[in-house]
Design a protein that fits this description.
By secondary structure, this protein is of the alpha+beta class. It has 20 helices and 28 strands.
Length: 782
Amino acid sequence: MPDSLPFDPSRLKFGIGQPVPRNEDPILLRGEGRYTDDLQLPGQLWGVVVRSPYAHGVLKGIDTSAALEVPGVVAVYTGADLAAAGYGTLRCTIPLQGLVNIERPALATDKVRFVGDPIAFVVAESKAAAKDGAEAVFPDIDPLPAVTEASAAAAPDAPRIYDHIPGNQVLDFHYGDAAKVQAAFEGAAHVARLDIRNNRVVVCAMEPRSAIAEYEPGEGRYTLHLGCQGVFGLRNQIAGDLLKVPVEKLRILTGHVGGSFGMKASAYPEYVCLLHAAKELGRPVKWTDERTGSFLSDMHGRDHEVTAELALDAEGRFLAVRLTSYANMGGYLATVGPLMGTMNFVRNIQSNYATPLIEVATRCLVTNTTPISAYRGAGRPEGNYFMERLIESAAAALKIDPVELRRRNFIRPEQLPYAAASGSRYDSGDFAGLLERAMREADWEGYAARKAASAARGLLRGRGIGNFLECTAPPAKEMGGIRFEADGGVTIITGTLDYGQGHWTPFAQVLHQTLGVPFERIRLLQGDSDQLIAGGGTGGSKSLMASGAAIIEASAKVVEKARLAAAHLLEAAEEDLDFEPHAEGGARFVIAGTDRAIGLLELAARLRGAKDLPEGVPDSLDVQHVFQEAPMAYPNGCHIVELEVDPETGTVSFDRYVTVNDFGVIVNPLMVQGQAHGGIVQGIGQALMERTAYSEDGQLLSGSYSDYALPRASDLPSFHFASHATPAKTNPLGAKGCGEAGCAGSLPAVMNALVDALSERGVTHIDMPATPEVIWRALNPA
């Protein structure tokens, strides 16, 4: 890979590096967005899911007779109906050795395993009739004892949730050389140890899940409209694993998507119910969840109980880090359910420190709770959080400045590329320089005066550092389609999918930079599985690395084809043509040393419908290209937070928030800052507010926004963003990904600042969510 950005460095108005406003926004701001629930198909029916009111119980039967008599109800389906139709099951697809997988039917047939477990699907002429019908379904359930915590599920006397899973344990994961790690701890001059709770969160996407299914009996073909994170992969999962039909028999269409954060990436039981009903009834069937159903049925995030340990020598250098964890899987295994507490802990616990040994031991257990899946960062923020809290704890015990302790252990530039104990290979970065930059931006030296001013007002002030380095998902096969339209526009076709990030604008910037296509003529097609030949979807902070590389490579193929065609039309030799992507008036081919030229868009128009072209001259400049793969990248940064705590009430207010990041080559600074802001806010929410609470019998106590707190604008500070970039060497664009990094820095920065504030009252650790009540009780233990 090149050591620097392989583009013309001139500053184009719409080129790479420019803060171009999002093309997507005018449509959304005018209320013209087209989300799944906005769709109304001719003759459509409505579906409503009947969910279990019990967290655990034997499903002895379901009486649907009264529901079928409700006016407007046309059908009620149960698990027995779906089983008879031969559909497949939902299961984990992560290839982890020793995993005891769970085959989850779309509707429960033998037992219910969490409150909200789908047990029947009612279809009616209207949503109101479907809801009335759902209330008339009577399940016969014998309740059983429930367990909601992973550690409690591991106890010998815990309720057994699956007959084939003794002890409720689906995976006993281990990474690292336990003997070497133990020897390092035994020989250490100091060991920092913390019991840390990574609290469960509800995803709370702005748009609830919704879907509409159609079936064409003549072709035997399904169409599913829904919000997701990538239509190509989801089509493969639903067609192959669930419907058991060839992939060409299913089309998935996605319009605008109102947030996902990992939650909408995979198939859900409702989609099987909709597709079955559409086929059986010969009419489109629509379902849109309500917020209560979302709280119960959307995959939750996080939920780990961790013992974190760091071994240090007498000089404060890291010898080994060890995580011993319980990971809550919920009532079923999500598609990537075990990933976060296993391999993503491994890849991210090292952060940007030269730690020679890593050990991660995680027991993954099922409980009677909503299943757990990926949530913004999916193990990346957690790994960094554990390490940063350990560093602060070690620094306090050793009476070493925590900044100095970090400096001693940073991976140095001369050590790059660095083979990490996690198996990753860091290609670039200036970790110490980035910390120094963040300290300057945060006015580190002025802190003492600010702390004194806070104390004069009766407030406790704290300061926290959140260093992070996270491993993105490795970009896999991704489509880079470029299509020249009859009206003079150019369409990018990609298998990634924008669910709030804003892909159209940065992708257009890349194409504008490489081909010189006028920015205003560029469109984006991303949500139609019929148009794709590959697609890795959006997730793991890899979209720009994958789609950007695909666009760059596809652009090169366009130039190759265009050179052949231009040589023919200009009656010149190929080698005599210069390609000028940013000539005045648009990209063009020029015969060297002359003023004879042809524009790229003119060339595309003249080829359309052209006849009698010589052999070898293309009749179109369209390209369907597949970018194969690239290694993961390693975005990193430093967040510094100052906050104040009112000891009388336990409330927290932010004074300043500085974030300095290495995201490699930044295509659109404006949008990158927006991504960072969003991640920071979600990190603050988890750290201080978001508490997912269950009763002893498995009822979700925080099942609405009356009981579950999300951060509001008034809770948040302004964010100071700065870039301290080193281009990645792992992809042609030099980008490192930014979508999840805000969480990775904010969790440790906020919690370190909070503990720092409370430390003058003797508090050395506090768990998330540090709500005002939790803080007040920590300050007033009596």
